[in-house]
Amino acid sequence: MMMRDLEGTDRTIAVVNAMLAALLLAALAMTGVWQFLFHDPDWDGYVVGTGRPVLDAPVGMADVHRTLADMAAVVALWITGWMSYRILARVSWTGLAFIAVLVGGILTGSRIRINAVVRDGVVDGDTTGYGQIFTGGYDFVIADRNDFEPFAAMFWTALHLATLPVMVAMVWYAVHRSRGRRLNAPAEAPSWIDRLNP
Questions:
Q1: Alpha-carbon distances of 115 from 37, 70, 124, 129, rounded to whole Å
Q2: Which range, 44-48, 117-121, 158-162, 169-173, has the best average confidence (pLDDT)?
Q3: Exposed (0-12), middle (13-18) or buried (19+): which is 98, by Cβ within 10 Å?
Q4: Computed from CA positions of residues 72, 75, 79, 81, in that sequence, does the dihedral angle turn out positive or negative?
Q5: φ and ψ of 51, to 5 deg
Q6: Which end of the chain has fewer CB within 10 Å, C or N?
């Protein structure tokens, strides 16, 4: 079923849902790029080997990015439920898979939130952005709950970065599959009442 096949309130809801989802994905992409380039780890005064500082909630763009991800999860849950009940009259497995990928992105993002980068046994206070994770040249990174050596830090960061392209690909796949089904659907046979007319 395509959006243009919907009528009345269902069409309005579908348009609002699509616009809201597109805005959230674009905002997540922008704040994510900002994090990748400019994120400033906040434990500059941390001394390696001492107790971990009390965890602070993310501030600034990190907080905005996390809030947008939570909002995207709520919107994805709503859209999947609405599509399953109102439009498809069956469970939308693509929607559930989309939610699973989104939750995976939220979990990997919270796991790899970098608070400090350690070079030669000392916290480097001049580091910015998550892009540095892929350049190497550091001993390990300190996240909220764990320390990650370079390979693990690259793995978790790459897994988090893959979330948005996978979600966009899933949306494209769902739209493409819907169009294909519509084009390949057999033509409706005339009803018995239509056949009564000469």
A1: 15, 21, 11, 11
A2: 158-162
A3: buried
A4: positive
A5: -65, 150
A6: C
Q: Which residue has the tokens 């947008």?
A: 68
Length of the chain: 198
* Distance from C-alpha of 113 to C-alpha of 108, rounded to nearest angstrom: 9
Start-end of H helices in 41-92? 61-82
Q: What backbone phi and psi angles, to 5 degrees, belong to 140?
A: -165, 165
* CA dist 75 → 33, 34, 40, 83, 88 (Å): 22, 23, 29, 12, 18
Angle at 97 between CA 91 and CA 100, to 5 degrees: 120
Residue type for 126, please?
A: D
Residue with tokens 């970098």, as numbered in its chain:
114
CA gap 153, 137 in Å, rounded: 12
* Residue 44, C-beta contacts closer than 8 angstroms, at least 6 positions apart: 116, 123, 125
**Residue 97, both tokens:** 């898979």
3-state SS, residue 52: coil
Q: Residue written as tokens 């992105």?
A: 105
pLDDT digits over 93-144, tens only? Answer: 888 999 999 999 999 998 998 888 999 889 888 888 899 899 888 999 998 8
